[in-house]
Amino acid sequence: xxxxxxxxxxxxxxxxxxxxxxxxxxxxxxxxxxxxxxxxxxxxxxxxxxxxxxxxxxxxxxxxxxxxxxxxxxxxxxxxxxxxxxxxxxxxxxxxxxxxxxxxxxxxxxxxxxxxxxxxxxxxxxxxxxxxxxxxxxxxxxxxxxxxxxxxxxxxxxxxxxxxxxxxxxxxxxxxxxxxxxxxxxxxxxxxxxxxxxxxxxxxxxxxxxxxxxxxxxxxxxxxxxxxxxxxxxxxxxxxxxxxxxxxxxxxxxxxxxxxxxxxxxxxxxxxxxxxxxxxxxxxxxxxxxxxxxxxxxxxxxxxxxxxxxxxxxxxxxxxxxxxxxxxxxxxxxxxxxxxxxxxxxxxxxxxxxxxxxxxxxxxxxxxxxxxxxxxxxxxxxxxxxxxxxxxxxxxxxxxxxxxxxxxxxxxxxxxxxxxxxxxxxxxxxxxxxxxxxxxxxxxxxxxxxxxxxxxxxxxxxxxxxxxxxxxxxxxxxxxxxxxxxxxxxxxxxxxxxxxxxxxxxxxxxxxxxxxxxxxxxxxxxxxxxxxxxxxxxxxxxxxxxxxxxxxxxxxxxxxxxxxxxxxxxxxxxxxxxxxxxxxxxxxxxxxxxxxxxxxxxxxxxxxxxxxxxxxxxxxxxxxxxxxxxxxxxxxxxxxxxxxxxxxxxxxxxxxxxxxxxxxxxxxxxxxxxxxxxxxxxxxxxxxxxxxxxxxxxxxxxxxxxxxxxxxxxxxxxxxxxxxxxxxxxxxxxxxxxxxxxxxxxxxxxxxxxxxxxxxxxxxxxxxxxxxxxxxxxxxxxxxxxxxxxxxxxxxxxxxxxxxxxxxxxxxx
Length: 813
Known about the structure:
This protein is about 50% helix and about 10% strand. By secondary structure, the protein is of the alpha+beta class. The longest helix has about 35 residues, at about 480-515.
């Protein structure tokens, strides 16, 4: 920093330019006015439509939506937490690039920052950043629309950089950067990614602690831990609204503990094991880290013109039109791995794996062991139900682990740790810190392992593998044996070709490093060669999963769901609050209905547990009394030509009603079971814990009493009612205790749960107004705390910047 000249800045500026060029080249269709079609974003648009419309109309946050699963908090769907001022820094780190190009640029720049903190040459850091940013899973999730997940991944590397700086006794700079990047990490609202990063951090902490004890530097280590802890507190406080509301909500979702006592062996305090481990990576499938299509690639691929599938179809005189379908559309079930289906593999890169193995041999120090341990742990956990010894251990004893599903996602840890250790290995070579012969011996060992494996599968792909997956017995019912045999032959061919590809890339990288070790090639050419090889390796694989076909015109992308005739019929109904059951789709994995209506189904990974249980035990078994009590006014059904049409449900119970009496039950099991055979119009099923709220009700109903909905908003419902006697009212609205308040003529009154998921109140005789308002304290109090801590953190950032500049100026003198 003593001589801040253009020459000094050149590699850093070059890095930004290179990252920009590569990013925009990868997303070149965006330059033509096209937009990436992301399936999860399409579903998000359906799920969040009511929330977005309310925000546009009022400028306020709804915090609740009735468009999915009868009603649920909006915390994990769409809420703008405007008091977190640190979140605005995201635009700085992504240069305000259009979405989703901004995410890939963030991958690059974030890892580049980490490389610089590890004192790796800027040019080599560019290679590492490309190796990290183009790891296939990171691109696949962008194609799918998992934007919060991708955004959270983007801040892992710079967050690690801040923590490592702090551990290197750069307390102020490291602490502030840790707080900033941790705040941004939490802002992206993907707890699963953050949780997995905490595993990496724990292993680094253990390794550094052991090193501190060995070197008798425990004091400085504890100081670093303290600074990181304070930084973490600031990050949490800036995001306290989101964290608080999410924590509050999570207790009631499928990630919380059930009150049911059935299937105890499968229950945990979080997700059920079968559900959580459904997406488990196969043990052998882990080879995709080295060979991309080792397990066939994505679930469905296009058949090549010269593939075994096309050949056998023609040999069996299949119509050319059918053959073209297999060629032009992804219709061949190539994937034969352990997961139910997949969009693509976790491919770290043949070169990165090779360098990672080299790093295990030549890199020294505590960070190496932490990175190696984290990689092994991530692989083991990704096996899920294929390695239940470890999975059971974590589900039972590691706090919070059982809250997350898709255990294969733990491989994001390996996708972070492997390129870090790989670049540290190359740093050792370029620093010439070891004898060339020792380096060459290490290079030969790493090549023997990585290159040997790829060569083995290049020559003998069928030696250990059958190319038969768990789902093949289902496919065998659809396809004749001759076609299944051709599919397996193509799977073998794909593996062989990718194995050859990986071997060639490893060989070229090995030759490049050998040439530098023995002074056959200058450093700058090695840097350029490494950048180019890593780019070729990963860019070409990523284009298999995100390419021109992933984009469409902005006009088409702006309207994710075209209204059907059934939608138009229902939209003519001016009643502001009723529900729809759409049986032309799978209603509980569907967001299209929510785009236009209030659906009893939906699409979300954190639905209310009681509602899921209601579906599993009652709705899925066609219990129409439950459907009616949810005020399901319309069904969308297929007509004779399988076109969706609207069908009015005359038995829907409406917005609210008075019942004749109630039935008290002892527990959740009986509460749910009692819904099997009851009349919700006359009887309310109530848990005995709410019996105290029923004392003023005398099992009477005014035959001419009524309850009328006067005004509907997603977070407020205004009713007028009249009854000659105290009445027990049931509202066809989802009960959620942490936020919904009931007011009788402006006075706060208690309400309670009835019929497993609905709201109920005892209403005093007369004509009165009842208003339900969604007023979660966690949100309104949290926003005040968030604003205050954001301001303090911004002041600390300015102070740290001032001190660093002053220190630099003094160094110049």
